[in-house]
Amino acid sequence: MRHFRAGMSLDDLRKRINALDERIVALLDERAGLMGAVLQAKRDAKLPTFDPEREREVLERLARMGDGRFPAGALRAVFREVMSASRALQDAVTVAFLGPAGSFSHAAARRLFGLSASYQETTTIDGVFDALYRGVATYGVAPVENSSEGSVTHTVDALLESQGRVRIRRELVLDVVQCLMSRAPSVGAVRRVYSHPQALGQCRLWLAKNLAGAQLVQTPSTSAAAREAAADTEGAAIGSALAAEIYDLPVLRESVQDMATGNATRFIVIAREHAPRTGRDKTTLAFSLKEGRGALKRALEIFEQGGISLTRIESRPSRQRAWDYVFLCDLEGHADEAPVRAAIDALGGVCPSVTWLGSYPAAEGVTAP
């Protein structure tokens, strides 16, 4: 490593930085030149262009290489964009998300795919799934649960209705910081608060204490709320700092969610293919039950006997007939592993229907931009 002489002039330091920048650009060009060969190798092996497991492995390896002067988080961010641009050179990647721009789904999608992907806004969560069914998007990003408000039922229902036509390919957990944004001069001047029902629920106590007299207006997304508030001088929105920036709304209060820490939302990436094993995976299943006493107990005993841990289970109406339910569960392990495969087969013997909705790497928590 070259050491710098003490007392170097500002002009000399800038020249040195310019030289380093030129080397970085040359190396990026060299890296880009390899992408054609990478694309051909993937096509020959019949592999998808997007390999999130490989990308995560590369990002973690690079983050560990630094000596600490350049922050590890910043290294990940820089190389996430390098890989996003490289992926765009290989093949067009279109990502559907619940919009408009500035939603937490948009932030999650950008975190996963970078700025070089092509993004398609949808007005509903069903629209994210429909974009994949119609082939107009390669991937979709949707929220599935929040740590304080529980399941996002629209996503759960869309997963159940997909009947395996798409798979969960990846998951991401984002720490969610809700902001109150408005053109009103103060919090006391706000008469209406717009937001998605999940966001309103996350801020229920704060709203009761600080805006008890305001009308709460539900919107399809937090970014749609920001758009409404931008046109309402007495209105405010609850949403992300990104939405405030996009819609040029002053932030009146930051961190208005009731849980000061630990308010996180889990997002899923849906695709037509599942993820390969990584050794630290989760699997999502949906199953129905036969009528009769002890049906759920018999189904759950299969996981117990197989030594498989369930991390989440919930029931939703089947929409086939009244009072009929389907269970959706997350469990530790990959469907390609013998214990998980055996459990799925055994479930088929006691349940009228079993649908594998995907196996994918377990997420690590990160902070939303």
Short descriptors:
globular; 40% helix; 7-stranded mixed sheet; 369 residues; alpha/beta; 5-stranded mixed sheet; single chain; disordered C terminus
Kindly describe this structure:
With 369 residues, the protein is of the alpha/beta class. Helix content is 40%, strand content 25%. The protein has 13 helices and 16 strands. A hairpin with a 7-residue loop joins strand 13 and strand 14 (325-332). The protein is globular.
**Biggest pleated-sheet summary:** 7 strands, mixed
Instruction: Note the total helix count.
Output: 13
Structural class of the helices, strands and pairings?
A: alpha/beta
Q: What's the alpha carbon Rg, rounded to whole Å?
A: 24 Å
Approximately how much beta-strand content do the residues carry?
15-25%
Helix percent band: 40-55%
Question: What's this, in brief?
Answer:
By secondary structure, this protein is α/β, with parallel strands linked by helices. It contains 13 helices and 16 strands.
Helix and strand arrangement:
Elements: H1 10-33, H2 35-44, H3 52-65, H4 72-90, E1 94-98, H5 104-113, E2 118-122, H6 125-133, E3 139-146, E4 150-151, H7 153-162, E5 167-175, E6 179-182, E7 192-195, H8 197-202, H9 204-210, E8 215-218, H10 222-230, E9 235-239, H11 241-246, E10 251-253, E11 264-271, E12 281-288, H12 295-305, E13 310-317, E14 325-332, H13 338-350, E15 354-361, E16 365-367
Parallel strand pairs: 1-2, 1-3, 5-16, 7-8, 7-9
Antiparallel strand pairs: 3-4, 3-11, 5-11, 6-9, 6-10, 12-14, 12-15, 13-14
Helix pairs in contact: 2-4, 3-4, 12-13
